[in-house]
Structure prediction request, 264 residues.
Amino acid sequence: MVRFQSLRAAASAGVFVVASGALASPYATTWSNYNPGSSPNSTYGDPNAALGSPTRYTGVHFGYEGAVNPFFSPFDPQDLVAISPGGSLTLAFDHDVFNRPEKPYGIDFNVFGNWFYALNGNVADFKFGAVGGSIEVSKDGINWFAVNTRVSDGFATLGYVDIFQTEQAPAGNIPTDFTKAVDPSFNPIGKTLAEIIAGYNGSGGGTGVDFASTGLDFIRFVRISNPDTNSANLYIDGIAAIPTPVTASLFIIASLIAPRRRRV
Ligand SMILES: [Ca+2]
Ligand SMILES: [Ca+2]
Prediction:
């Protein structure tokens, strides 16, 4: 009973309890309110493509396949859903995602699309396909709060740590972590694939979103919209919640469980 009460206390304190976390997915598990916008792209018209893990290997459908890396982004129909100008899509996690200061860089979840870095020789020259796109978050799917981060502000996707070529790379053996944020101060421009992989430090890239500015303590829903002012389609691969670091969670649980010392 003590253990149960401690877990309840931990849960009410916002700690991501391991017992329930075993059933939780870090990725979106459901979608709603898909509006493809003013120029729908039927090839990328299935919102289910934004559920589950972002893509690690792509191009099978088009016969030009390879491991996803910052120079070779997802492009198969089952990888991405298109949101054309004026359109939007709501994605939902199956658990509350908390705003916690212990999360690295304050980032609470990552958004993945299909932007990539154009090559100049063997280094990244500029970001290609960064359409922008607005992001709103919600606890209940009814009341929405905008964040300042745009969908493609962040980092192109990397599927594996052990990729050694940009085009048609074989799948690696060491998958990246889509639930880990890249250091926002890292700049991939001018860097080689190996340097970018090192800079990502095990992360799978993506755009890190910190919703602290909304004042919400947790969210469950993410709405992504393509502004009417855009001329290009926005493509979404998936979203990934960033967990509160285990050491911080354990510390909070331990402090809740530990009996208080009496003052002498
Ligand atoms: Ca945060
Ligand atoms: Ca996807």
The helical segments are 2-12, 18-21, 193-200, 246-257. Confidence is low (pLDDT under 50) at residues 1-21. Residues 49-50, 54-55, 79, 237-238 surround calcium ion (ligand 2) (CB under 6 Å). Residues 25-244 form one domain.
